[in-house]
Design brief:
27% of the residues lie in helices and 25% in strands. It is of the alpha/beta class and 453 residues long. It folds into two domains: 348 residues, Rossmann fold (3-Layer(aba) Sandwich); 91 residues, ANL, C-terminal domain (GMP Synthetase, Chain A, domain 3), CATH 3.30.300. A hairpin with a 7-residue loop joins β1 and β2. α8 crosses α9. The chain is globular and about 60 Å long. The chain starts with a helix and ends in a 7-residue tail after the last strand. Bound molecules: zinc ion.
Amino acid sequence: MDLDEIKEHKHGPKWNSEASDMLDEGMIDEIAEFTEDLDEFTRNMESRSIYLKDNIPKLLDYAKRHIQYIKELNIPESNKLIDFPTTDRSILASYPWKLVPDDLDYSGLIVYNTAGTTGEPVSVPQHPISVAAYCNLLLRALSFWGIEHEFLPEKVGIALVGFQKYTITFPCILKSLNNTIFLKINLNEEDWRDAYDGYRFLSDVKPEILTGDPLSFSKLAHLGDQIKYPPIRPKALITTAVALSDGVRKRLEEAFQAPVIDWYSLTETGPIGYKCKLGHGYHVLSHDIEIEILDKTGNPCKPEEVGEITVSGGRNPYFPLIRYRTGDYGKLNFEICPCGDPMPRIFNLEGREPVQFFTIDKKIINNADISAVLKPFPIIQFTFHQDSKGACELKVKFASGVQQPSKEELREVICEVMGKNISLNVIIDPNLGERRSSGKVIPFSADIPLFYE
Ligand SMILES: [Zn+2]
């Protein structure tokens, strides 16, 4: 099946865009080099540390000469991370040029606009290489999951499935992945001739791997429930949501008969980690990022302490990461994992700053405790808010096509952590998230100020 046949498929979507991977010969060689390095420097922790000891000081030295934000600070003679300031999304949103090096050829510049869950919308400079490297990192994760891939030319290797009001859609060829075909589609009804064509199309073109968020996958599974059509059978589902609930995971694994692999990635940083096959945290994917765990003031946390995940290095020449604060929280663990991947792991990964809640007798409850009791339910999105008088509101949106728990069941588990006497309003809202253009919601919020503020 070539690209034209995909474009004109009888169940295909109304493609609204065209794209290419923008890779030229030189870049393909660079990707091959990245692949070799990835293999060599992720073999054990010594090889990774050799790579970082060699390359991070070089990066910092380069930053002092070519990145405006760092240049302005006149950092004295030092090539140690700790002597450099942290950077974050707000700097990227306000002064992107201060973080883009000044000595490059900008003809390969790609700009990604991203909404994010907590921060302001931001434009992220990308390079064809940083985009293509995504595939190599995916291959690495698949191999530790024991998934044999082919990625053949004239076959669909990867389909990125979305479900939102509007997003660009296109098929293209991935030169760095054996010329396999990549699809970006949107399950939104208006994108198709028939409401169920999204399912029929994917069933016909047989993508090897599906990537997307749980909401989109759940929509796809639901479409499949409603029609008689050969089932979609990818080798794996790569899901971009951290803390996928067990209920939704089970639902997706049953619907597609494939493992669901959680993927931790930010537009700004590229992929950072994937969920260990044995469920022991998230393994760091690549050799070229140094991860620090920092506290609120920017100081390194003690080992085993949860703090903000901060990343340096990477493979994006237009946006080299200098102590970039991700806004996500977790802790690092260097023990060797029995799954066979020697790379360090991130534990307690929470995609946002911890929020604290209070019981009636002023006992502190962490948002992770609320996440934990909600985990068994097939919840796609939720919000939990406590107002200044202590009253709580839980809004949930369930995966479609599953047995939905009652409000009472949800109330019961929340009371297990917040106490029986808590004032609690439970709302089941099938439209949760749809009022925001990004479709994402901020799960935890509280009007009560935190103790340490
Ligand atoms: Zn592992």
